[in-house]
Write a structure and sequence with these properties.
Blueprint (H helix, E strand, L loop, with lengths): L3 H12 L2 E7 L4 E7 L6 H17 L6 E5 L10 H6 L4 E10 L2 E12 L2 E6 L2 E6 L3 E6 L4
Parallel strand pairs: 2-3
Antiparallel strand pairs: 1-2, 4-5, 4-8, 5-6, 6-7
Amino acid sequence: MMDLPTRLEPVLAGLGYELVMLERSGRGLIRLFIDKPDGITIDDCVKVSNHLTHWFTVENIDYDRLEVSSPGLDRPLVRPQDYARFAGEPVTLKLRVPMDNRRRLSGQLVGLEGDAVKLIVDGAELSIDLRNVELARLKPMV
């Protein structure tokens, strides 16, 4: 049996959306974060929610509540291709193992080379092993 995100990706792609992240809660909640190149509106969330409500029934997927939303301005970078897509953008990384006594780094994303995230912090380019990145998010300009 394929996992739910793997099953959902082609369904969402067929509607013109990308699955950013899926969260499951112990009380039967499925929370989806979706995106598309020109951003997400309330109407997009309603469209996907209505479609998936029927799809979950047909596919016999057990859940109590479904929430569909935009990933927000501080969108998480989840897949390797996200690092290429958002190259040049300001990001914040939370590391599993500290580098130079720091677990949080903020800087400009250069991209991904192999398994290394390239980031410019205080004018210096750093190379961080992707496996050491616990969480990466876009940093909205204020």
